[in-house]
Amino acid sequence: MPPTRPSSAEIPDALDSDLGWTLGVVFRSYVRTANALVSHLPGGPRGYQVLAAAAQGLPGGQGALAQRLGVDKTVMTYLLDDLEKAGLVERRPDPADRRNKRVVATERGRATWTDTQTRLEHAEDHVLAPLDPADRSVFRELLRKLAAQANSLDPVHDTCRLVEELASDVPAKPRRSPRG
Amino acid sequence: MPPTRPSSAEIPDALDSDLGWTLGVVFRSYVRTANALVSHLPGGPRGYQVLAAAAQGLPGGQGALAQRLGVDKTVMTYLLDDLEKAGLVERRPDPADRRNKRVVATERGRATWTDTQTRLEHAEDHVLAPLDPADRSVFRELLRKLAAQANSLDPVHDTCRLVEELASDVPAKPRRSPRG
DNA sequence: ACAGATCGTATGTAAAACAGATGAATTGTC
DNA sequence: GACAATTCATCTGTTTTACATACGATCTGT
Q1: The pTM is what?
Q2: CATH number at residue A69
Q3: Of A81, A178, B30, B82, which has the fewest CB atoms closer than 10 Å, so is most exposed?
């Protein structure tokens, strides 16, 4: 998914008023900036999310953490390996359940987290720069409304229903053929 | 990049006012819907873009097409393989330059394109549903402004400059270690 | 006509994600 | 209290995807 990660200049013509396109342009612009701002810590953006979760001291082992972040548990394993190797977090066996390994941020990890947070705020300002302050808050508010609604109907079967609702000639699932 | 394709529920807590987060939620919501709506044609979203380009009859061979869409030329090769196998486009040798292979949409390809276009318009309405008509046009306009500016400073060195500008402790490039 | 460049394709390689198996540790039941 | 079943984190193997490179075919220059 990301399904789409087109790099730079693409379809510059008549799709200027297309919502999906403009949304993608703005989002990718932010993602590019944000990625650059967190590229110094292992795991990139996901490493930051893990660090943030650890610094906020939220409960649960690394499995729960993986589920919350939407990554596979095996990914979380070597994500934490790199993060721990960098001295930002620690795996600490849970005294209550020694199978669990609590993920706690080190002193340096907490400092790095707050530092990166301020960076990301700058990234937001960078993206919103072309708007004057009044328009910025309007945009934030509208976006917040959209996000709230999008979250409520996020479940997968909903888009499936929408597909069947609009589909005309989709009998089966034509998976992509292997390259050979 | 996608760099980030987190699936569903993630960091539900204090980041509600975070621009990057809400932007990502809305964008992923649209992407999910749009992907579902174009999943019936080979290559998914990129297959649709190729089909759209072919149906609009834009000039140039498949190499130029690949560059415009931001995908590798080798990807374009088997992308067109699948698309041609499905009878949506044809590779036609350019009479002026027989190295080039013009990509033209078949009759069925054009029909599929227009059909998919209307579907994607429904997807837009679906995302913008929580807003009343006035707010929708406001949102579209603000987003258009942001996209225009983002496009102008998209070049990579710009974000690099921004990184160095804000970086505090980034001496070298700590590439991620291989898993083993 | 011949050297060099360009287009599309084929091939190999590296990185990333997912599924399944493994070992350690807990819970339940008898 | 012992034993089966479950859960957690990790390891291993497979698959997919993108990229880099090499190749044959074709064009353009001299």
Answers
A1: 0.78
A2: 1.10.10.10
A3: A178
